[in-house]
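Batch job 17 of 40 flagged for manual review because the log was empty.
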Amino acid sequence: MNGHIANAVALVCAGNQFLAGKSIEGFWPGASVFNFMKLVEFRHPPASGKDADDYPLVASDPIEWFEMLKPWCNGLRLHNVKPIRGPNQQTDTPDRMLAGFVGGGQRWLIEAVGKSESEIWEAFHRLGDRNDPERRIWKCTHILQSRLPRAEIDVDATPTLDDAVDRFRKALVRIETYARDEKYDNWADIFNEATDTIDAAKPMIEQGDMARFTGFDDRQAAVFEACSRAWVFGGIGSWNDLGGGERYDRVSQALYDSLNACIAALANSTFKA
């Protein structure tokens, strides 16, 4: 999956570990999802409401943010929503076709869940020094978007992991069948491997520090791996490059939608409050 999505999943899952009193020593900046990240910070919007004014810094890194949340936050949840496009950005291009570009695809929001109120945070990525000697070329600022009654968000909570995985698996089978029919055997093999990983209920490859920091059990790790394998929505050379008519659009959109839902449900399966 794209780096900014993996970042969001890691933040939510590791944050839930931290808030539950478990060790995530080395998470920042050592976790592999941050290999190319120079900065991951958290800011409030200007009190003036003017974008040109300073955004006050509230946490300079994820651990400081987790510490700030700990006195009141029960845990973190991940949500994906349709992007907001400005008047000069109107296009009939589906979100899945833009997912490989910075700022493209759906929006990913992190909810810090309190007893009665939640904070909604959104990450904004920007390119830093391309010549950074450690190749940490990306900077990410999370900005508080709103505070809402928790009950409002609970109503729209993502589906259970079981339901999301079932929908994801069905989409994988259908898009694999389409790929076989069109002789896209390399792609079909990718979809089949994702299905096999789900069915095995354990990861096929070493998960590295992702399992350690997130606390995933074997099944959760398998779902994460399957999502990573099946994320074929990029730029040049990706599944998006193929095209192919109404059936292609139908199975591609079904996979994209089910993938987003499954990623959110996986992250939220670590929320225990």
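Reviewer: the log was empty due to a logging misconfiguration, but the result itself is present. The first strand starts at residue 37 and ends at 43. Unflagging and moving on to job 18.
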